[in-house]
Amino acid sequence: MAKPKTYRILGLMSGTSLDGLDLALVEFTGGKRWHFNMIASSTHAYTNSWGKKLASAHTLTGADLLALHVTYGTYLGKQCQVFLRKNRIRTIDAIASHGHTIFHQPDRGFTFQLGDGKAMHAATGLKVISDFRSLDVLLGGEGAPLVPVGDRLLFPQYEVCLNLGGIANLSMEIRGERKAFDVCFCNMALNYLMKEIGKSFDRDGTAASRGEIDNSLLKSLSKAYRAIRKQRKSIGREFFEEAMEPLLENRNLPLANRLRTVVESVAIEIANALPVSKSSLTILTTGGGALNRFLVAVLQEKLNGKAVVVLPEREIIEFKEALIFAFLGMLRLRGEVNVLKSVTRARRDSCSGVVTG
C-alpha cells in the first residue's frame, strides 16, 4: 500500500525552562519535500503544583518517579483532549510527545523524559509516539538535539536555525551534513534568576536592560562553558545545577547586573559558535528568548554584521519545537529517519520514538 502523504499530528513540547506545555496541531503534506500548516496551537501554563513536581522530580525515589511518570502521562493526555475539543478536531493521526526531561546522562547510557506514552494513549484512545531520545543514546549518541532534522526539511531557506529556549542551540548545514549542538543556557538561567523576585521570566528583558555587566561573573560563565565548547555535548539540568547555580546565586551582585551579564554571555557564546562565512548568514531565531527584545538586540550587536537575526511570525517563534516534534512523529509513522547521526554522533541514523496504540 502507498504511504499517505497528508498527516495531522499533535506535537507536545515541555521545555527545561518550565514555561508550560506547548501544543501544536500540524498538517503535513508532501513526501519528497514536506510542507506544513499550523492548524491550532496553544500553551498550557503549569500550575504551581505541577511546576514544583516537575522541578523536583529528579529527587524522587524510583517508585515515586514511576508513579509520577504515569500521572504526568495521564495529565498530558487530558490536556490533549481539552485542546482537541476546544479546536473542534475530531480525528488526528497521532500525538507526538517530547515529554519533560528529568535525567539526561548520555555518558552513562540513559536519558529520561517524564510522561508515559501508554498513559497518554489510555487517556485519549489515540496513537501516541513518545521517548524520542533513548534509542539514539543507546546507539552511542547524545540523544540531542533532535530538532535539526526538522530544520533541514521544513526550513531549508535559512543558513542557521537558532533556538533560544531554556538552552540555546544552533543547527546548520556544513559541507552537506546537518550539524547542531547546544551552546549555552539561556531562558533556564534568566528564569532561574527572576524567581528571586517571584517572577517566572523577564518580559522583554526589561530588568536585564537596567543592569550593568559584571566582568568577573562574565569570565566565570565563560570558563564554565569552556569544556562544552570543545566537545559540543548536549547539556541539561545536571550541568546547570553543578556549574551555573553557584555563579548565579551570588547575592552580592544586584539581580539586574546578574541578568545583564547572563544576556551578554548568551550573546557572546552564540556569536562565537557560528561558522566563519564570506557572506552574512540568515539566522531563523525562535523559542521564548526570541520574544526577549533586549536579548535579541544584544545578540544582533555581538554578531557584528556576520549574521542577521530573522524573527518569523509569532506562532513559529513560540511553537517551532512542538511543530517539529509533530514532524518527528510523522516520520516515525512512515518508518523514516528522524534522528541524524551527524548531529548526535550516534553510530547511525535512526527512526526513533516508541509507538503506543
How many angstroms separate the termini?
20 Å
User: Could you describe the largest sheet, including whether it forms a barrel?
Assistant: 6 strands, mixed
Can you list the strand order of the major beta sheet?
3-2-1-4-7-13
Q: Helix/strand-derived class?
A: alpha/beta
Q: State the order of secondary-structure elements, H for helix, E for strand.
A: EEEHHEEEHEHHEEEHHHHHEHEHHE
* Overall residue-averaged pLDDT value: 94
What ranges have pLDDT less than 50 throughout 5 or more consecutive residues? none
From the spread of the alpha carbons, the general shape counts as: globular
Using only C-alpha atoms, the radius of gyration works out to 20 Å
By DSSP (H or I, 4+ residues per run), the number of helices equals: 13
Q: How many beta-strand runs?
A: 13
Helix content: 40-55%
Features:
13 strands, 13 helices, five-stranded mixed sheet, alpha/beta, globular, 357 residues
Tell me about this structure.
Helix content is 42%, strand content 23%. It is built from 13 helices and 13 strands. Helix 2 packs parallel to helix 3, helix 8 (215-231) packs antiparallel against helix 9 and helix 10 crosses helix 11. The longest helix has 25 residues, at 62-86. It is globular, with a radius of gyration of 20 Å.
Helices and strands in order:
Layout: E1 6-14, E2 21-29, E3 35-44, H1 48-56, H2 62-86, E4 94-97, E5 100-105, E6 110-114, H3 117-124, E7 128-130, H4 134-138, H5 148-154, E8 160-164, E9 167-174, E10 177-185, H6 187-194, H7 206-209, H8 215-231, H9 237-248, H10 255-273, E11 281-286, H11 293-303, E12 307-310, H12 314-334, H13 341-344, E13 354-356
Parallel strand pairs: 1-4, 4-7, 8-11, 11-12
Antiparallel strand pairs: 1-2, 2-3, 5-6, 7-13, 8-9, 9-10
Helix pairs in contact: 2-3, 6-10, 8-9, 8-10, 10-11
